[in-house]
Amino acid sequence: MTEIFAPTDAEQVAKIVSQAASSGTTLDLRGGGSKVAYGRPMKTDAILDVSALSGISLYEPEELVITMGAATPMSEIQAALAEADQHLAFEPPDYDHVLGRTGGGATIGGVIACNLSGPRRITGGAARDHVLGIAAISGRGDAFKSGGRVVKNVTGYDLSKLMAGSMGTLGVMTEVTLKTLPRPKETRTVVILGVDAETGLKALEQTAGSQAEATGLAFLPKLQSARSAVSVVSAADSVTAMRLEGAGTSVADRAAALAAQHIDADVQILEHEDSLSLWAEIRDAKLMPPSGALWRLSLPPASAAQVTARIGATCDVECLFDWAGGLIWVAVEDDDPCDGPVRDALDGFSGHATLVRASEDLRRTIPVFHPQPGPLADLSARIKEAFDPQGVLNPGRMVDGQ
Amino acid sequence: MEMPEPNQDVIRRSGELAKALAAVLPPGAVLDREDQRRAYESDGLTAYAQMPMMVALPETTDQVSKVLAICGSFGAKVVPRGAGTSLSGGALPLADGVLLGMARFNRILDVDYANRCVVAQPGVTNLGISDAVADRGFYYAPDPSSQIACTIGGNVAENAGGVHCLKYGLTTNNIQGLEMVLMDGQVMRLGGRHLDQSGYDLLGVMAGSEGLLAVITEITVRILPKPQTAQAMLLGFDTVQAAGDCVAAIIAGGIIPGGMELMDGPAIRAAEAFAKAGYPTDTQALLIVEVDGTAQEVEVLAERVSAIATDHGASTIRASTSDQERATFWAGRKAAFPAVGRISPDYYCMDGTIPRGRLAQVLGEIAVMSERYGLGVANVFHAGDGNLHPLILYDANNPGELDRAEQFGADILRLCVSVGGVLTGEHGVGVEKRDLMDEVFTEDDLAQQQRLKCAFDPDGSLNPGKVFPTLHKCAELGRVHVHGGKTRFPDLPRL
Known about the structure:
The complex is a heterodimer.
Chain A: E1 3-5, H1 10-23, E2 27-30, E3 46-49, E4 56-60, E5 65-69, H2 74-83, E6 86-87, H3 108-113, H4 121-124, E7 131-138, E8 143-147, H5 159-163, E9 171-179, E10 181-182, E11 186-193, H6 197-208, E12 216-220, H7 222-225, H8 231-234, E13 239-246, H9 249-260, E14 266-270, H10 272-283, E15 293-298, H11 304-314, E16 318-322, E17 327-332, H12 339-344, E18 352-357, H13 360-365, H14 374-387
Parallel strand pairs in A: 1-3, 2-3
Antiparallel strand pairs in A: 4-5, 5-9, 6-10, 7-8, 7-9, 11-13, 11-14, 12-13, 15-17, 15-18, 16-17
Chain B: H1 8-12, H2 14-22, E1 30-31, H3 34-38, E2 54-56, H4 61-74, E3 77-81, E4 97-101, E5 108-112, E6 117-120, H5 126-133, E7 138-139, H6 152-158, H7 165-168, E8 175-181, E9 187-191, H8 202-206, E10 215-222, E11 224-225, E12 229-237, H9 240-252, E13 259-264, H10 265-275, E14 285-293, H11 295-311, E15 316-319, H12 323-334, H13 336-343, E16 346-349, E17 352-353, H14 359-373, E18 377-382, E19 387-394, H15 401-418, H16 443-456, H17 474-478
Parallel strand pairs in B: 2-4, 3-4
Antiparallel strand pairs in B: 1-2, 5-6, 6-10, 7-11, 8-9, 8-10, 12-14, 12-15, 13-14, 13-18, 16-19, 17-19, 18-19
Helix pairs in contact in B: 9-11, 10-12, 10-13, 14-15
């Protein structure tokens, strides 16, 4: 049976990691355990369960700052922010549907370690953009901190950003400080119904480059819109969705103005509640199938149509376009994960494809994260070594043998 | 300021090195005459000067790669430089170092409206990017006050900010891709025209790395559509406390202004005398609040800000009624530094960040210090994001005044740290704040940062003497201390 360590404070984490480094004991880092199935499968000697490092220690809404233990549940954070009419502007997604599970339990440490951001990424930034500071234990067992509680800070290297997206391979985050922002009071979504992907994506591109200040831009083909609980959306042959958010009464006026620009199309406006529901579905990829392999592509938005056409030429896929085309979810049948065509489709464009959901076997044989060119891969390996010389923290979670 | 001991061996071989560099660079791109080198002896922190051993001016990535590899083989140090506007001595040369001038990388390589980004060489000025996309209604958001002169490469190195950071972010939040060259000559690309790079967030590490990790040769920045409209408001208060409370109330009211600047009495009067911006000179604190967005949104927000200011006892409330008037409101703030330069022979610009709510306390304590040091001070403050710029007034011709100004400055930064802030918000550590780093960081914190540097530059050749108070050899930092004891994990909780 795998041994489980359950430290109750950062000092104990440091002791455990320090001894793990001395004895070469590899550790599988766990917060809420909701993302065990994300990344490459690992075989470790022990589990480091940090779920006790939980709780909000500081929240000052007027300073736009919150500090908490790394394993504080997202639900607890979101409830506290909602009370002050604030939120995390990067719109953290819940990956339960993506990873084919139920039960919740996601923690802020996991969200940051995976750098997960929702539809508002296009204007509000990614998870990493909202991390003001972290405290962590390196793979050597040394406590270190980076950043602070203020937005503007160039005091030393920004190790907080390095921790974001590093999947627990560089350090065990023990505390996280994030920027909070006022929650928009009102939201509306302008939807164009029934146009083809090319037309829909063009409309998104045009809106992204306009002064409309849309905070969500997605295209849902018929298979995706059909899964929505919002009736206007599920009844449509496709949905081109453009979200507006703001201070109050002005949002409805802005929505009417944006809709008027598409007067020749079948255009409607989703009111506040429907708008919230739809973007939660898009954020959590709930409009994608619940099983089978699932890819997440980050790419230049204007190349979205071309890239999906390339993939579609050889594979039978379902796609959902977020970030005005800059993010595409691609679902395939599990018996053929279509990894070659998916990754090759990005040739000539910048971008990368992550195999977010697949069987353990597939995730072991197919690189989950996009392979990097030699010199960059070498640099990443040296960085891993600089933080975790004995390779005890989540070994192999991102890259085989690292 | 103590800099790393010059390597006499390298200095002795400088002729040979110049020849090797000249062989891979265009004619005239290696400057080794004294009169040529003189122009590079200081950056924006003019209190420090050091002649570089020589200056190299490459034009292509391939040349940068060759220059770095050659310098590496000679054991020569390299100091990268953009426009030399650093206020922290980030581009201060070394006596045994090659100053790598990136000014010839001055072209915009691609404007990509469909993907809303611009690919630029590092020597392009910050404003040059916004200018290049202005006719299509776009701009590049971070706008440091030196934006006419400072380069985008330097902006990345220092993670430059500006007055719009709270809403639009710093440089690190507005770059998508980089091409960079390591000290060993290896060229690599990070990110690109997509959001969210894969693998470790090296873009995030490069932003604010102060030229210590790699030389940047190309940058992809995000551009934004200009807001449809913007309105600025001048809000005057009788006390700094009232102005600070107003700032907190605006944010607590759910409003994130495009810009929110605060000036204290001395700064208001200096700026008004210089720029004639129409500032109320009888107030003790002036807020400039700018709201931007769609016309409908701005109307709602401006009304709310005005109501909040009234609640907080503002003695002056004026809203701009045209873009021209808005520009006038900003003119005084943007000219605050030269304006202060007019009332004092010299001034020393500090750059701490504090939690916004501590502003009144911090300004109060700065006033006490000002008495103690016998030096005047004017304060301008990026109130939205807590970034404070006290301008210490002194006269370098009076013996000892520069020293006093520096001590005063160090005390201000210690104060910032003690209230939960940091040493530098946007100017960088450089040489200026290097020896204060242990006020913020433990030895372990600094060691981990230096290990990161070792992954990029194991010989410590790139811009040494900056940022870190103590230099450690990478081999020493890499050593693993094996803890004794045969029992694994005694006394630790387990399930």
